[in-house]
Amino acid sequence: xxxxxxxxxxxxxxxxxxxxxxxxxxxxxxxxxxGDIVEFDIQEDNDGYITSIxxxxxxxxxxxxxxxxxxxxxxxAKEPSFSTLLLDRFLVLVEANDIQPIIxxxxxxxxxxxxxxxxTTYQEAYQAIGYQVETLSVEKEIDLNKMAPYFxxxxxxxxxxxxxxxxxxxxxxxxxxxxxxxxxxxxLGRGKHTxxxxxxxxxxxxxxxxxxxxxxxxxxxxxxxxxxxxxxxMAARQxxxxxxxxxxxxxxxxxxxxxxEVNEIAPFRYEHYLQFYQEIQNRKPRY
Length: 287
Ligand SMILES: Nc1nc2c(ncn2[C@@H]2O[C@H](COP(=O)(O)OP(=O)(O)OP(=O)(O)O)[C@@H](O)[C@H]2O)c(=O)[nH]1
Ligand SMILES: [Zn+2]
Hints:
Helix content is about 30%, strand content about 20%. With about 290 residues, it is α/β, with parallel strands linked by helices.
């Protein structure tokens, strides 16, 4: 549940145990991560030693969490303004890590009727791709009861631009939490997340990392060939392109480009694909 100062806090059915790792881990260059499933020996009271770590299904670096089931991507309808470019950037990073994305559109209390129509159109476009999309307002407590079930029986990370209301949402869904929000940090005149360690906190029947994930929006680790797989609506058409390994850019008889022409693939998604493609292509090699 938490790693702090050489201790690992392990939750079992009955209690939380303060455990140390063993020298074994140092030799194997393996150290327990928050999110790990471990076996441990109880020493006395609530102290113990971790003896083995079960195989991980994945591991994130920032925040350092293992076995992440899904990423809740929060985008605000307004302030900061709704951006499909930024949303797609998060989606690609999450997809590239083989993690299931869920989209929450926040601050719905701030939108006018006109803006609501635009947001709804985009919501439907993402749903058509197959993504789950929910809208909400923490401030006006709109549709908050729909959010908690998404966390059930899963380990989640929450992702999204600064100021979209990630901390506000978690605090609202679990009033026992007091994750700092922008309001508080501004009034205290100090930065957030300065000396933070990662901890899994309870939301309903699930667990969430209390530190946002995917804060770096660079496609550092993503190869050009892997990009279209991060767009499910493109991945689904790949086998219909004339050329195997079609990149959907200049190739003839490309099923993706054909689908864009008839609006079966949303043109804005394809434009973002091309933009990210350029970005990865222009990436400076690092040594
Ligand atoms: N109107 C409105 N304001 C909200 C809502 N949710 C959050 N806010 C406000 O938006 C600001 C930012 O909220 P935070 O929860 O700190 O945002 P965050 O995403 O955690 O930001 P970082 O920690 O910087 O990543 C705060 O002033 C909140 O009060 C909402 O549903 N409606
Ligand atoms: Zn193609």
